[in-house]
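As the next step, I selected for study a record pairing a protein sequence with its backbone structure tokens, which the following lines show:
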Amino acid sequence: MDDEEAAAPAASKTPAELEAELANLKAQLKRAAAPAADKSDAELEEATRLELDAVSVISDPVDRLLEASRLSAHFKDLEQQMQALRNSGVNEALRLERVTASALAKRLGITRGRVSQLAKAGPPIEQAFFGHGELTVALGGKVEAGKERPGPVIAQEDFQTYEHLRELAEDLGLRTRYETIPPPGIVDLNRDDLLVICGPRLSPLIGQILASDPHLQFAADEQGWHLNDLKAEKTYRSPIDAGDSGDYAYFGRLPRPDGKGTFLYIAGIHAMGSGGVVHWLAQEIADLYKEVKTRRFSVLIQSRFDPETREITESQRVTPIYFTEGK
């Protein structure tokens, strides 16, 4: 295409030419869609321009309107997330890095009062442990026998765990939603802001990813499912299997199958164990975030519960927090 053809207004082009140009722009945009952290300001500006160009050549005005509205909402959401990241960064610098407000103001080139404003506007720094958007909690479902219309159902203990997790997330300024993982446990793990509560018994896919942990593992033998600390060469069996009101659970941040991030994972030997993790997390989230940030880790949590109300009464960490190479 020569310069005169390239300069032709969109209205004078045939539908085929417009479609070809749009496809070309989308291909360029896909190549430009590398993580923002790896881009210069010029590259980010170019990626944004490509998005706008792709919308501008849509010939149908209604389709152009719809795509422009979608893009506008996307940028608005991105701006809000960036503001939250900025404000939480101020909080983290002041609280965890022990930087004074005056020193931070000087480094940022703003006033000390503006630093205080950003700190007050920011969410609790621990929010970043879960993510920055809406937290999706995927709960393992199983088919309940004897139902007239069988379908995947969530164990009462797992839903109770979700409710406590939702309360913790709300305290940190996060919205949550839940979804059911239907048998045989296939779930899309390649998403941001995802937390999965589903044992390897219900999801072989989860079991395969858990196998990548060199420190802690689920295992099963003639006595039932249990957890192994491979480094300490110690086995943890659920007190529930012996008629007692306690359990153990695995908690960690695992790699996504697409290699582009991680997801949080909770699973007890029995369903009550998952509730123990959330009980522990509600008490330890600040210290845990300070230690792990968003790195990959795993740990085992022991808990006890009231046999009548099924509420967790106590919880504690029983292994070190193990870190795994990679992000």
Remarks:
- Residues 102 and 154 are 51 Å apart (CA to CA).
- The radius of gyration is 25 Å.
- The chain is about 40% helix and 20% strand.
- The longest strand covers residues 246-255.
